[in-house]
From TrEMBL:
It comes from Pristionchus mayeri. This is Transthyretin-like family protein. It comes from the Eukaryota. Residues 1-18 form the signal peptide. The keyword Secreted applies. Keywords: Secreted, Signal. Residues 139-166 are annotated as: Disordered.
Length: 166
């Protein structure tokens, strides 16, 4: 193998094994017909152990946009958007919104992963009413100060335990 062939192979391996990818997501969060301000939103890489890429909060109108880039070793990134809303009429009425943390997760289509560090094509989530339970949603609840409780991640609600002696 000649030295020029070796250099070409080395450069090809270097290009294939690591390249920068970016993703950008935007949208508007509502709670019913009202804007949902100050809600934490984060962008994650699905296949990395500590996959947090970027975090933001929705503005006073419920709008958000966030982007991130990642040097990925030889695979197309698989971005996830995680939203932590505080919007549920039942929780608010029962004062459970301080006890339960909802989390809705969305897979960003791979067609919106950009090659390079600049985001050219943003994924627009549109207007999302977080009052409605989302398909990929779970909730984690802290114990109530008034009675015991446990978390049901599958159903995303608090299950009350019986009170001893009653």
């Amino acid at each position: 193998m000649s030295s020029s062939s070796f250099i070409v192979v080395f450069l090809f391996i270097d290009i294939v094994t690591s390249f920068t990818q970016s993703v950008g997501v935007k949208g508007v969060l509502t709670c019913g017909n009202s804007p949902l301000p100050d809600i934490e939103i984060s962008l994650w890489e699905n296949y990395l152990p500590d996959g947090g890429l970027a975090t933001t909060k929705s503005d006073g109108s419920g709008r958000f946009s966030l982007s991130a880039s990642l040097d990925s070793p030889s695979f197309l990134i698989s971005p996830l958007l995680r939203i932590f809303p505080h919007c549920n009429s039942d929780q608010t009425m029962l004062r459970l919104n301080e006890l339960c943390q909802r989390e809705a997760t969305y897979q960003i289509p791979s067609s919106f992963v950009n090659i390079g560090s600049m985001v050219f094509e943003w994924y627009d989530m549109g207007r999302m009413n977080m009052e409605v339970r989302q398909v990929n949603e779970r909730a984690e609840c802290s114990p109530s100060p008034f009675q015991g409780s446990e978390t049901s991640e599958r159903e995303g609600r608090v299950l009350a335990q019986s009170i001893p002696g009653k």
